[in-house]
Design a protein that fits this description.
- There is one protein chain.
- By secondary structure, this protein is of the alpha/beta class.
- The protein has 17 helices and 12 strands.
- The chain has helices at residues 19-28, 31-34, 63-69, 79-89, 105-108, 111-116, 127-130, 133-146, 163-171, 185-194, 204-213, 222-225, 228-238, 272-278, 283-295, 325-328, 358-370; strands at residues 10-15, 37-43, 48-50, 96-100, 120-122, 150-151, 176-182, 256-257, 298-307, 312-321, 334-341, 349-354.
- The strands form 2 sheets. It has a 6-stranded mixed sheet.
- Helix 1 (19-28) packs across helix 17 (358-370) and helix 10 (185-194) packs across helix 11 (204-213).
- The protein is globular, with a radius of gyration of 22 Å.
- The two termini are 25 Å apart.
Length: 373
């Protein structure tokens, strides 16, 4: 009787253990999953702890204490070489993945080095896939040279199956016509409250302040209202569409983006507190926009649009009829994305649900890790 094939184990290096990183390690500690992964490296911005030996591993339930007691620096620039040597020396030749849970540009710049060392990259970090085209090209070429994969489902919509859905549509030969959606959980909440089909009397600045108090916004709400996050997500998706892959040479900066930050509140000297203090000065402007939409039987929604035929990629405040899905289907900080394709026409394929939060983002990262086993 033939013996069973040995079970594959995925070696893991986890960079960044904030809200998402810590939640990912908590999910990996589940008995049904822990035996399928071997944690060999963990780092935060100041320290790292490793067990880079063929049989070594860090305890999923005790990594935090081990990290706190460590005096070793992160040494991120050396990490591709160190992990590459581990991969080469591993007698079992198990796959290896580095998980980047940071929002660091510096870590994103290391992805090609990891990939060229045969190390898979899994991340919710949008920077590498939404920045200059040369970096994206380098990532693709590095992946192709070794077969190591880069997976980033959680860069758009947290745990929602948006990136993989688009890849599946493209790889099975469907023709993408238009992608349209509410991509920002923060802006979803703000406009669901400010411009509801049922009406509402709250000032725009009040809604933004409440959103910050509930933890929906960045420390500086202007970082949400400027539309850059939506532009990054549009860049990531557009590069999956063959005809648009090379269209955004400067990444998200090439996207036509409408900022909702008033001109006088855009300077680097304006703090988050200053922003909230002076935003009421512009309530009349936003009230007028809402009033105009209501006269047309519409609501306001901040959306991202990729129109393939026109080659148009934009992030903007748009009006939608009060019976449109973007007006009626959203609650809280939900995302909703509609894929209009040759197959999904005239009714689009719609993906909807929580588009932010540590638990669902970590789930999106974990789902990518499982694809490597």
């Amino acid at each position: 009787m033939a013996s069973a094939a040995p079970t594959r184990v995925l070696n893991l290096a986890v960079v960044g253990v904030g809200l998402v990183g810590s939640e990912l390690l908590r999910q990996l500690a589940q008995p049904s999953l822990a035996s399928r992964f071997r944690l060999v490296f963990v780092s935060n911005s100041k320290q790292s702890v490793s067990s880079l030996t063929p049989k070594g591993n860090l305890d999923f339930s005790n990594w935090k204490q081990s990290l706190e007691e460590s005096t070793a620096p992160p040494a991120l620039n050396d990490l591709p070489r160190i992990l590459g040597e581990f991969v080469e020396a591993d007698p079992a030749k198990n796959p290896f993945a580095v998980v980047d849970n940071t929002s660091s540009e510096a870590v994103a710049l290391l992805y090609p080095k990891f990939l060229r060392a045969g190390i898979n990259v899994v991340t919710p970090n949008k920077k590498a896939f939404s920045s200059d085209l040369w970096l994206y090209d380098d990532i693709l070429a590095s992946s192709a040279s070794t077969g190591a994969k880069f997976l980033h489902e959680a860069t758009v919509g947290a745990g929602l199956p948006i990136v993989q859905t688009l890849k599946d549509l493209v790889e099975t030969g469907d023709q993408i016509k238009r992608i349209e959606g509410v991509f920002s959980g923060t802006l979803s909440y703000i406009f669901n409250e400010f411009s509801s089909p049922k009406g509402g009397s709250e000032f725009f600045s009040t809604v933004v302040r409440i959103a910050k108090e509930k933890g929906y916004t960045e420390p500086h709400p202007g970082d949400d209202l400027n539309g850059a996050d939506v532009a990054r997500k549009l860049t990531i998706l557009s590069r999956i569409v063959p005809s648009l892959r090379n269209s955004l040479h400067s990444g998200y900066k090439s996207v036509s983006t409408t900022s909702l930050v008033p001109e006088t509140l855009r300077g680097p000297e304006v703090t988050g507190a200053d922003f909230l203090q002076h935003l009421p000065d512009f309530d009349s402007h936003f009230h007028l926009l809402k009033e105009e939409a209501e006269k047309e039987g519409a609501v306001l929604r901040y959306v991202g649009v990729i129109d393939v035929a026109k080659g148009e990629i934009k992030a903007a405040l748009e009006k939608y009829p009060k019976d449109h899905a973007f007006a009626t289907s959203l609650g809280g900080s939900d995302n909703i994305i509609a894929f209009h394709t040759e197959r999904y026409s005239p009714r689009p394929l719609i993906v909807q649900g929580a588009g932010a939060g540590a638990a669902v983002t970590a789930m999106g990262v974990l789902s990518d890790l499982l694809k490597l086993l």
